[in-house]
């Protein structure tokens, strides 16, 4: 297969079809890094307002390094995978301390930073510094497996190594390197999509093995899907004198440092809502009423969160050690886990201040 023609076709297509994204208007490695981390597991349309708010609030490494944890979590609220933002702040502090505040240009220096793997280091080196470093994310994997007709599972070591080598072979032939890597990602996002790929207008169709062989729908071969697991949680909105009882998740937990309404996992047939409230909150419930049900997914889990409003009539010391009573008007200043942010929106909608 002629790699030179593939590179030329992609660059020509990208020159006419690239989306006008704000992080593409700069060569600032910090701005590009922020966009790449935000885009992990997240669509561009979702990231756009987050990136713009972030860059206004924390425009450089120094601002990120010294920001308070509650500020970075609030800016990240709703993006999920919150370890990413904590790693970003750790990395910023390492750069300030070990690199005199200058964003590293060397691939190995970037790879040594917290939260930066081979893909992110390659993306920063190529896009910000125009270095011929390969990248391999979901979009690129899809394009390469289809174009080169690679039937092995991309997660398997041998196939993954082959894909990295292909990506490197292509980027070494490209000028500019920054444009080429972005063109691979862009083609996967806009044309070579997981479902209903637009092969008839794809610039690589003449070179695509999967297109010629009718294998587009079966590549990439990611193996059998993991069956989702259903889980059920109950959450309680305890209210008293215009305040709500909330708690902050501890370090090392899922959604660490974020705020939430007290909740716990229950068996599918558990109907002891009042007793659950007592055990969980240490607050003797008065009236308990259903507020809403929220369904969401985290990796392979399909979660049903049933939310109840509780009028608190009595409090024990246990509750004071596990959370705080906060005025409803001030809750919006806290960074909540996504599902609990929906609870907060429901509270405001049902009983506006």
Task: Please give the structural blueprint.
Blueprint: H1 3-17, H2 29-38, H3 44-57, H4 61-66, H5 69-76, H6 83-98, H7 107-111, H8 118-129, H9 138-147, H10 157-172, H11 177-190, H12 209-213, E1 229-240, E2 243-248, E3 259-260, E4 263-266, H13 273-281, E5 283-298, E6 301-315, H14 317-320, E7 324-327, H15 338-350
Helix pairs in contact: 1-11, 2-3, 2-8, 8-11, 9-11
Describe this structure in words.
It contains 15 helices and 7 strands. It is α+β, with helices and mostly antiparallel strands. The longest helix has 16 residues. It is globular and about 75 Å long.
What would the keywords be for this entry?
7 strands, 15 helices, 2 domains, 7-stranded mixed sheet, alpha+beta, 353 residues
Task: Look at the structure and name the CATH superfamily of the largest domain.
Answer: Hypothetical protein, domain 2
Residue runs with pLDDT of under 50 for 5 or more positions = none
The biggest beta sheet reads: 7 strands, mixed
Number of strands: 7
> What percentage of the residues does DSSP assign to strands (E)?
15-25%
- Span of the ends, CA to CA: 65 Å
In CATH's first tier, which class of the largest domain applies?
A: Mainly Alpha
Write down the secondary-structure element order.
HHHHHHHHHHHHEEEEHEEHEH
Q: How many separate domains?
A: 2
User: What's the quaternary structure here?
Assistant: single chain
* Structural classification: alpha+beta
In the CATH hierarchy, the third-tier topology of the largest domain is known as Endonuclease III, domain 1
Shape call: globular
Total of helices: 15
Radius of gyration: 24 Å
**CATH second-level architecture of the largest domain:** Orthogonal Bundle
